[in-house]
Structure formats: structure tokens, C-alpha cells
Design brief:
With 689 residues, the protein is α+β, with helices and mostly antiparallel strands. The chain has 4 domains: 98 residues, Ubiquitin-like (UB roll) (Roll), CATH 3.10.20; 93 residues, Roll (Ubiquitin-like (UB roll)), CATH 3.10.20; 73 residues, membrane protein fhac (Ubiquitin-like (UB roll), Roll); 315 residues, membrane protein fhac: a member of the omp85/tpsb transporter family (Porin), CATH 2.40.160. The chain is 17% helix and 40% strand. It has 10 helices and 27 strands. Helix 4 crosses helix 6. The radius of gyration is 37 Å and the shape is globular. The relative contact order is 0.05. About 13% of the residues have low confidence.
Length: 689
């Protein structure tokens, strides 16, 4: 019996000892450097256990609810007063570093979120110093340093004070100092672009051989002369400051160069950047995987586009069959399809090669609704409340031709107009355009009832330029403030040229517009008249902060009549200034020559200027400030050179919506006349210009 008991005890001791030896490496809390297995290794072993990972323990619901409702213990020694601080950032040798730090660091951005201990502020400081080092490197200061410390009025806070913070008196106003010591700014050194299909590129290891001769000709017969061999070929010149943003942009340009020269599947395989400290240069090697060389074939339409004439889509083609693939031309094709308003979804990709080696351009289209109806309410002090509505059909006869009818109803103006456009009437660059309408207008300047019609051609010279020539006829009656009611009839040949690089029609934040018009008219208005009306409008949009956070909008307009004075031509041909789309703060058309009753008469020339900073607060709201100036003159503008301009200024609120910004402006005249009102209000859709 004793023998059996001894044997059982021996077996139990052996089992316990063996199990303890096997479990020791899996103890997650054991991080001693002499141990063979680390906590990470243990986690890996647990993750790959065939029995599955150990499930997390579950607590009874009653205990969870009780724990959540239990108040936290309050330490009587810890101050609950927030610690306020001010960030003082200096970078004497490179001020841009301090500016970038204050703009991006959480230390500065979180000042309104309180901390309650200096120790917590110290942690926030240490995290932001990492951001500071990233800023140094992004601007090419790879040998620089950034340090930070916390001060109060009595001097710098030492580590002993931080350790005794619980028993120390609470501090409520501190300075957090950041000091950048940038050192030398590194410049761009040797750069190389190599291809993974070159014979001396080690594809298996992915090693980048900086001594590779990247100019080795391709084994295919296509021309590679336009492909970059160095980053200097895409704008990153040797000796330029090694800014991270410029380097990354140049790498993107390498890919774009391949995409535009026959390689739509090209992508960056790997990059390597080396700092040469003795020469203080950044060297870069970029490996690109070019993929297949592709020749472009004809567009092949897929999807639901049965209601649009295929010839219209073919007219939009921006390439010749047999050309190498160009993503830039594909994007022009995509933009043309999108701007037509006929399609809600557009996908373009290369197809399979045919016997000639060309790949069709597979274009998958989903038609959008062709008809649109809309209305808007508007208000300004000059016209009062108004209603504007429209109906549009963008595929009127199935040839992508559009018809748009618009109705404007104000207390002093009622107008019905129609606009028609038939694209590609004489080839892909010409559209036929026509418009007509009836108008009744009763303003201080005149009362007018008229009908007009015009038609002609618009020629697209390029993506940004177009010119048009039309013939027009207009007739009706006009009651001038100084003359009895008169009938008139006139014929014209309006010519115009338009340029646009603006990135939006209703809310441009970059680019500009230029509009030139020259319109000879002949007709009868009491007597025969012949006159040449010319006008130029310029607009510029400059992003100052970000892409759309702060934008400076500028506008200038100038016009004049040649061959006849203003009283000899119908008032609708004369120039007027003042109002919501002109000089805010003044009555509509009120700036310029006036009669004894202060009714505007219209002038022979006109000059207007506007400046408007636009600040976008968030995705929904924005604010603007503006200064407008303008005047219409009785004679030519060269005799005035901008003298006697009337100036108006004000502020506005913008609410951004899917259809464009809704604007509310309030303006006041800065140099008013005796009868000018002090405030004017304007509400409409879209920016003022």
C-alpha cells in the first residue's frame, strides 16, 4: 500500500513540474530580456493554436451595469481646476516651421480642451514634439532638432516639481515653449527612375540598384523618349530644397507620365530615399512597374445609353485610333461625357487587344434623367422678392440637344426666355445656339416691353476657350424718363470670346474667367442709329489657405459705346451700374447720369471693380467681406480714368448646398449721395460672381 501511495505522489509531482516548465514561456507578463519568448511571441502562438484563441471572459450584466454607474473616486489632492496654457513657437532660422507647427499640431489645436495636471500637459507636449520632427523632415531639415518645455512666471518647471504635482499648488496659466533649430536644409541630389522589366533589376528581392542605367531602351518598338529617367524630368531639379511634398508629387508625376505615354497599368513598385549627410543631399531611387504597352482603339459603349445617339458619343472622342494610351485624353473624354449632363455613371478602361494590337476603350455609361425642373426664391432691396423657375430637357431630340425655358417674376421685372443648343452641327467643335424671349421691365431708368431672338454658332477653340457669332433682332417700346414712349427695332451681330479656367460655375475657388463681347447694332429709335457696343469682364479666384478655406475673389468690368452717344440708342443698349450683381449697397442701375428727378439715364461707358475674401468655416457655412466700386459715365471712360467711383462694402453669409451656395449679403454705401439708403440686402443662389 505504501508503495502505491509513493508511486502516485511521484507521478503527480512529475506532471506538475513538467506542466510548469511548458507554460513558463507563455506568461504574457514576463518581459525579462533573458527569456526566449516575448509577450508578442506568446500572442502569436495563441493566435495560431489549433484549438482557437482564448475567449475573453464575460461578466454578468448586473455587474457591468453596477460598474458603469459607480462614481470614480475623487483624490482630494488633485486640482480640478483646468490648466490653461499658451503655445509659444519659435523658429528664427526658418519661420515656416513655426507656422506649420501652429497650424497642424494638436498641442496648439487642443488649447480649448482642458487638462487638469501639468503631467497631462507634458504628455501632450511630448506627442506634439514628434509632429515637430515630422515637420522638420518634410521641409528638408533632416539634421535639425525641436525641443519644448513648460514654464510659469516663476521659471521653468523641473521634473521634481512634476513628480510632486499632487501635493503642489495647482497652476492655471502656463507657457509651452517650442523651439526649432533646423540646421542646414538638405537639397535634392541624384535621382533615378528604373523599370522593373529591365534586365539588371532584381524583381525577386525588390532591390533597387542605384547604379542601374535607367536609359536602357525597351525591348518593344514603342517610343520611350518621353518617359522620365530621373525625377528631374518631372520637375524635381537637382539642388532644389528637399521638401517631402515636392518629392512625393514628383513620384506621382512619374506614374502620370507612364499613364500618358502608353502604359495605363503602370504603378510604383518601390521607392528608396537615402540621406547623404556629408553633402547634405537627399538621393531618391524610384522603381516603376510599367505593365503592358497599350494602343488605343475605338470607344465601345456598354451599359444603358440607348436613348442617346451613338454618333454624339463618338464626336466626344479625344484621341485617334492607333495612338498610345493617354490617360489625360481619357480624362478629357470623361469630362465631356460628364458635362453633357446625360450620364450619372461613367467608367472607362482598356479592353482586350485585337489582332492589330489595339485595345478598345470600354466605356460603361448609365443614363441620367434627361428632364429637370426647378425653382428658387430670391430677394434684394432693389427688386424686392422674386421667383425664378426653369424647365430643361438635355436630350430633346435624342441627339444630346438641350432646351431650357426660364421664367423670372419680380415686382418690376417679368421675363420668359428659351435657350436651345444642338452640339456638333458642323463637326465636333461647332454647336448651333439659339435663344429668344419676351421681357417687361419697369425701373427708375426706363419702362421696357420687348421681344428678341438670336441664333448662331459657338466654336470651341480649346477646353478653355470658345467664341460665338450670332445674328439678333429685337423690338418693342421704351419709355425713357426724359422722353415720351417710343417704339424701336434694331438688328445686331453680337460676337463674343470666353475663357474659363475656374473650377466651378457657382462656387469657384481657383482659376479665372475672361469674357469679351463686341456687338454692332443698327436700327431705329426715333432716328436711325449705328453703334458698336464693347465690354470686357475679368474674374480671378486665388486660394490663400487650403483649396477652399480662404479664397480671394477679384472682379473687373469695363464697357463703352462707339459711334453714337447714349441718348441716341435704346436704353437697353446703354451701360448702367449699381445693384446686386454690380455695386452692392446702391439701387439697381442707379449709378451714372440722372435727370432732375434722379432717375437713371444710362451712360456711354462703365467701370466696375470688386474684391471679396471668402472664408469657409466648415462644410455648411462660410462668411465673406466685400468691397465694390463702379460708375456709368455720360461720355467715354478715358476722360474719367475711374474718377467719381461710388463704393459699397458689406459682409455676407454663405450656406453650402448640393446645388451651390445660398448667399445672404448686407451692404452699405461708403460715399453715398443724399438719396441713397443706408442698407441693402441680397439673397440668391451662387456666389456674387
Amino acid at each position: 500500500m505504501r508503495l502505491y501511495v509513493s508511486a502516485i505522489c511521484f507521478i503527480l509531482i512529475s506532471v506538475v513540474t513538467g506542466c510548469s516548465a511548458k507554460q513558463e514561456p507563455l506568461l504574457l507578463g514576463d518581459t525579462h530580456p533573458s527569456k526566449q519568448y516575448t509577450a508578442q511571441a506568446a500572442e502569436k502562438l495563441l493566435a495560431t493554436d489549433p484549438e482557437g484563441s482564448i475567449p475573453a471572459p464575460e461578466l454578468p450584466a448586473e455587474l457591468v451595469r453596477a460598474a458603469a454607474s459607480r462614481p470614480e473616486p475623487v483624490d482630494a489632492h488633485v486640482s480640478k481646476q483646468p490648466v490653461h496654457y499658451t503655445v509659444i513657437c519659435r523658429s528664427p532660422d526658418a519661420p515656416v516651421l513655426a507656422e506649420e507647427f501652429l497650424k497642424t499640431s494638436q498641442l496648439n489645436r487642443l488649447q480649448e480642451i482642458p487638462v487638469y495636471t501639468v503631467m497631462a500637459l507634458e504628455q501632450r507636449l511630448r506627442a506634439s514634439l514628434e509632429d515637430g520632427r515630422d515637420i522638420l523632415h518634410s521641409y528638408g531639415y533632416y539634421a535639425g532638432s525641436v525641443k519644448g518645455w513648460i514654464e510659469e512666471k516663476g521659471g521653468q518647471i523641473d521634473s521634481e516639481s512634476l513628480e510632486n504635482e499632487v501635493t503642489s499648488p495647482p497652476r492655471h496659466r502656463l507657457d509651452v515653449n517650442i523651439l526649432f533649430s533646423p540646421g542646414p536644409q538638405y537639397t535634392i541630389g541624384k535621382t533615378t527612375v528604373i523599370r522593373t522589366d529591365q534586365p539588371d533589376f532584381d524583381v525577386l528581392s525588390g532591390e533597387l540598384h542605384s547604379e542601374t542605367n535607367s536609359s536602357t531602351p525597351d525591348s518593344q518598338t514603342n517610343d520611350n523618349s518621353h518617359l522620365p529617367r530621373t525625377l528631374a524630368d518631372v520637375g524635381l531639379k537637382h539642388g532644389k530644397p528637399a521638401l517631402a511634398a515636392d518629392v512625393l508629387k514628383a513620384v506621382d508625376y512619374v506614374t502620370a507620365a507612364y499613364h500618358n505615354n502608353g502604359y495605363p497599368f503602370a504603378k510604383i513598385f518601390a521607392t528608396r530615399y537615402v540621406l547623404d549627410n556629408p553633402s547634405q543631399q537627399l538621393e531618391a531611387t524610384v522603381a516603376i512597374s510599367p505593365g503592358d504597352y497599350v494602343l488605343m482603339g475605338a470607344p465601345v459603349i456598354e451599359g444603358k445609353a440607348s436613348n442617346v445617339n451613338p454618333s454624339y458619343i463618338n464626336y466626344l472622342q479625344t484621341w485617334q485610333e492607333g495612338e498610345h494610351w493617354s490617360q489625360e485624353k481619357i480624362e478629357l473624354f470623361r469630362d465631356a461625357l460628364r458635362s453633357s449632363g446625360l450620364f450619372s455613371l461613367i467608367e472607362i478602361k482598356p479592353g482586350e487587344p485585337d489582332s492589330a494590337g489595339k485595345r478598345p476603350v470600354l466605356t460603361s455609361l448609365t443614363e441620367a434623367p434627361f428632364r429637370t425642373i426647378g425653382a428658387s426664391l430670391r430677394y434684394d432691396t432693389s427688386f424686392g422678392p422674386g421667383l425664378q423657375g426653369f424647365w430643361e430637357h438635355r436630350n430633346f431630340t435624342g441627339n444630346a440637344d438641350s432646351l431650357r425655358l426660364e421664367l423670372s417674376l419680380w415686382s418690376e421685372l417679368q421675363e420668359l426666355t428659351g435657350h436651345y443648343r444642338m452640339p456638333f452641327i458642323f463637326g465636333k467643335d461647332f454647336d448651333f445656339i439659339a435663344q429668344g424671349g419676351v421681357l417687361y421691365q419697369d425701373t427708375d431708368a426706363y419702362r421696357l416691353q420687348s421681344a428678341q431672338a438670336a441664333g448662331g454658332l459657338e466654336w470651341r477653340l480649346s477646353r478653355r476657350w470658345n467664341v460665338s457669332a450670332q445674328g439678333s433682332v429685337e423690338g418693342g417700346w421704351i419709355k425713357d424718363p426724359e422722353k415720351p414712349k417710343k417704339e424701336y427695332l434694331m438688328y445686331g451681330l453680337p460676337l463674343s470670346a470666353n475663357f474659363s479656367s475656374a473650377n466651378s460655375l457657382l462656387d469657384a475657388t481657383d482659376g479665372g474667367r475672361a469674357m469679351f463681347s463686341l456687338a454692332p447694332y443698327t436700327g431705329f429709335y426715333g432716328n436711325d442709329f449705328n453703334v458698336l457696343r464693347s465690354r470686357i469682364d475679368l474674374q480671378r479666384f486665388i486660394p490663400l489657405i487650403g483649396e477652399d478655406t480662404l479664397v480671394l475673389a477679384l472682379r473687373g468690368s469695363m464697357g463703352c459705346l462707339l459711334g453714337a452717344d447714349a441718348p441716341a440708342v435704346p436704353p437697353s443698349v446703354r451701360f448702367y451700374s449699381g445693384g446686386g450683381g454690380s455695386v452692392r449697397g446702391y439701387e439697381y442701375q442707379s449709378l451714372g447720369p440722372r435727370n432732375s428727378d434722379n432717375d437713371p439715364l444710362g451712360g456711354s461707358s462703365m467701370l466696375e471693380l470688386s474684391i471679396e475674401p471668402r472664408y469657409r468655416i466648415n462644410d455648411t457655412f462660410g462668411v465673406v467681406a466685400f468691397l465694390d466700386g463702379g460708375m456709368a459715365y455720360e461720355d467715354s471712360i478715358d476722360s474719367h480714368y475711374g474718377k467719381d467711383l461710388r463704393w459699397g462694402a458689406g459682409v455676407g453669409l454663405r450656406m453650402y448646398t448640393a446645388i451651390g451656395p445660398i448667399r445672404f449679403d448686407v451692404a452699405t454705401p461708403l460715399n453715398p449721395r443724399h438719396d441713397d439708403e443706408h442698407l441693402h440686402f441680397y439673397i440668391s443662389i451662387g456666389q456674387s460672381f
